[in-house]
Amino acid sequence: MQSKPTKRDLFEQLLNADPARRQLLLKELTTEDHQLWAEMQQLLVADQQAIPDSSFVISDLRELAQKAWGNPDSLTTPESIDGHRVIRRLGAGGMGIVFEIEWGKNQRAAMKLLHPALCSNQTIARFLQEAEAIGRCDHQYVTKIYAYGHTDLGFGSQPYLVLELVDGIPISDTAPSMPLRERLAVLTRVGEGISSIHSKGVVHGDLKPSNILVCPDGMPRILDFGMARSINNRTFGAEQCTWDWAGTLQYMSPEQLGVGSWPIDHRSDLYSFGLVMYEMLAGSVPYKLKGQTVGQAMKTVSTVSIPRIRATPGVDCHDLTRLIRRALCLNPADRYQSATELVQELERIRDGRPPTRMRLPLVQLHHTVYRHALRFSRKRPALVTLCAALGILFIGFWLLQSTTHSKSSTDLEQIGALARAINKDGSPLEAEELLTRYQSASLLQLPVNELRSLFQFYSSWHRWPDLLALTQRASDAISASVTRVGADHLTVVYTYKAKAHLNLGQESKASRALDIALESAEASDGSMLTNISTLLLQLRRTTESLELAKNRLEQLSPLDELSGAPHAHTRVYGILVCCALMEDDNTAYEQYMSLYIQCSLQSRVRYPPWRRLRSMGELDRCERFIQDFIARTNTASASHETALHAQRAAAFRDLGSLRYLDRKYNGAAQAFSDAIELYLAAGDPYPFDRVACIQSLGVCLRDQGKTGEALHYLRQALAHYKDKLSSDYPRLAESEVTLARCLYLAGKYDEADALAAKALEYFGEDIHTHRMSWCESAVVQALVHIENDNTEEAGLLLGRVGDRLTPESKLSPRLAEIFEYAAGRHALACGNPARAKELLGQAIAKLRVTHEPTYPWLALAEHWLIQVELAIDN
Fold first, then answer.
1. 36 with 30: CB under 8 angstroms?
2. Residue 34 has pLDDT above 70, yes or no
3. 3-state per-residue secondary structure call for 191-250
4. Is residue 204 within 8 Å of residue 214, measured between CB atoms?
5. For a disulfide at 510, which of 112, 338, 501, 781, Cβ 3.0-4.6 Å?
6. pLDDT computed for residue 247 by the predictor
7. Can you tell me the mean pLDDT for 494-502?
8. How confident is the model at residue 6 (pLDDT cuts 50, 70, 90)?
9. Got the DSSP string for 733-761?
10. 175-188: b or e for each residue (b if 16 or more CB lie within 10 Å)?
11. Dihedral (C-alpha) 828, 829, 830, 836: value to the nearest 10 degrees?
């Protein structure tokens, strides 16, 4: 087990990393601790969830902001901000406040100030992204940006934008008083603005009437680029790659809602603009989504028929209706492919010229087809009957052939076998083969259990973070399965679809999938409902959602039916987690905790409830839960003594990990010692778990400066891994690096050099997946070279470490603490004491924040800093 950083340092490092490589970095930082990986993963999810990009939760943002600022309406308007006189406050929303300010001589502007409660690195990056998006789109019908900066009004640093002050009203409010031709002229200008935005490589993402203002001179302005992103998915400046699209529900495109698996590009803006056009011309939206869940909205958008625009003198409303229906096509491929094309059609209709021939998809022509078919059937009923009979015969024959072919195919058997094998111990190559077979086979004959295994595997591809492209393909495959497996499997499909979205960092899409899964869930499906509930806990940890999850599980799993039931602990699991988070239902907690202990002693529980609390970042609740479990099982019946010891050992192991994270090395070492004794008392049923405790105990002793005792345990762990694991297994190489660090601290340089070189050779074959472990091995070997006065080899190794750590990546805390120390030692050995003093000082400053004075690396750095200062004085 490697020496671990503080949770805060690790989390901040992940937030500051490039989003495109964040999952890969997370894998590198937690190669030896799956629970730490799960905890950091959930913290990242919680960070995304805390600042959602959706008007669905604007009230939550307002509530969060009010906790920091109080009621925005009661705030005193400042006299000036950064030297600019504030004239008045224009408005306050969930994200911030907008002031009218003086900007230069005889000029006024709007200053948009972000709420201090929302000033995380991510939201500030998105705020800057909005500024860059507006700066790109220099057009007369797009609002202008004058400046971007930071100010402090007593609530901490807050970013602001200075924008053009637009004196206008929402475009939908101008319709009643404006003739139709003038409305078409205004819409044409808006279309020109959208075309200009797209030509600069930007997708607006939130087009709606309130973001399109019309000035008194009839000139429109497109505002609010907070949802904008680059068409080719590149970031403007900081973070964006993992951001889900979520705008105002009424004006979202089908692909933004999650209908189908189409990419979200500039054609999404054309759909939203089509809704704005319809409202501008008809006086209302073509369909209403207010009050609907996302699942209901998806169904509405997928099945709605766009009403005709009512007839108006001087304008061909038939052509106008065709234009809007094409803009509102469900499939982006059937819409206009550019804003320029749409504007040209608008101009033709406005000027009374014939439009180009529009080829609409069948879904938009169904009314016309129906009318013609009805008329034809009335004239020639006998011919229609004959054609219908022939058609039915043809379809029946085709279905029979397809079913026969499907049943005779061995693809389904191979898919099922691969799914079961990979879920146990799979590889990326097998993953690719499974996906290929899945996409070429019919799933209608696949048994439900194998179907679930298949979906579970798809949703678990985060085991290989470097295969995010495959994970996305798997998510698309699950989406496509909705129509292929039938309504009976909707709960299964959407539950695992939600999990796949969650692993991709797409929280809003995961939430929508869970809504549909809950709507279609049957009360008898306990396993799926438990999965849904735990995913709900990850996404929406509000009191209301906790109560919902708990009530659904209690309804499914009454106490009188659970006692003695198979796999009862899987049903109790979610209720216990809810109770632990809510802390207001002690009766339910007591009852289900007793039942859980009874179940856990009868069958092994591989993932106890407290690990879910830990993965959600609830470390204090997790520790209290573990201690309560240990106290309760201390007096449990001896009839299940072996199972009792095994469950208590797992609890002590997790307790040790929690204490280690808090740098409570004595308490952690004691917990690991207790876990080792309990595993042995249970007959050593899980030897790798016991050896992991031995290695963790050694790391705790090492970090207390007890290197002699630490070496005993670390050697014992490595010997076990050598005996049981193949030479190409990562855990073996990581154990060698851990021991090499301790050997260096103990002054056993030759052994440390041999182990580091061996690990270096292994990790060198997979730089991307094990980059940090490779770098750590190289630093240990470089330190040994420095001790042996081989500064040239040490410099080459440290240089290679620098090459592996690209400018955009950050050092992990566990590596930074020895890398800066090694660089300082190397600078001193090369005769540069001034540089050595600087580097060692940086290392000491970081180590003192997170470690006690007895921490060995801190003691070494302080010792050599004294030597450097003496060298400088002399």
1. yes
2. no
3. HHHHHHHHHCCEECCCCCHHHEEECCCCCEEECCCCCCEECCCCCCCCCCCCCCCCCCHH
4. no
5. 501
6. 58
7. 74
8. low
9. HHHHHHHHHHHHHTT-HHHHHHHHHHHHH
10. beebebeebbebbb
11. -20
